[in-house]
From TrEMBL:
Keywords: Signal. This is Uncharacterized protein. Residues 1-28 form the signal peptide.
C-alpha cells in the first residue's frame, strides 16, 4: 500500500537510526584467541532474534477504525491518541502494527518511553 511520506510517523532517517542501533548478530566479548574465533550464525540463532518490520503509521490506523486522525497529547511514547472532533482515545500499538503489516503476529515496542517517535513493529 502506498503512503505519502508526510503520513508516516517514523521517517526514513529515524528508521535508519533504529536499524543502526540494533544489536549485532554476534560479538566477541573478550580478546582471548578462543573468543575471537568466528561465530557462525545458526538457524536457531536467527529464529530467536526478533525481525524488525518498521515504524508505525498511526494516522492511517486511526482512520481505519473510524477516527479522523492522530494527535500527540503528551510528548512521550504513550502520548498518541486517535481523535474525532473532541473525542480522543488511546492507541493499541500492537493492533496498529497488525493492521499496518497485515500480520496477526506483529508486535509493538518502543525504544524510549520519553520519545513518542520511537515505536516500531516486529515479529518474535
Amino acid at each position: 500500500m502506498y503512503r505519502k511520506p508526510s503520513q508516516t510517523l517514523l521517517g526514513s532517517a529515524l528508521l535508519a537510526t533504529l536499524a543502526m542501533s540494533l544489536p549485532a548478530t554476534s560479538q566477541a566479548t573478550s580478546t582471548t584467541p578462543s573468543a575471537m574465533q568466528q561465530h557462525s550464525v545458526t538457524a536457531t540463532d536467527r529464529a530467536s532474534q526478533p525481525r524488525i518490520l518498521g515504524g508505525v503509521e498511526l494516522g492511517g490506523y486511526c482512520k481505519s477504525i473510524g477516527y479522523w486522525g492522530v494527535v500527540l497529547v503528551q510528548h512521550n511514547a504513550y502520548g498518541w491518541k486517535c481523535h474525532k472532533a473532541s473525542k480522543r482515545v488511546g492507541i493499541d500499538m500492537v493492533r496498529a502494527c497488525r493492521w499496518q503489516y497485515n500480520n496477526p503476529h506483529a508486535l509493538a515496542a518502543h525504544r524510549s518511553r520519553s520519545d513518542p517517535y520511537s515505536w516500531y513493529c516486529f515479529l518474535n
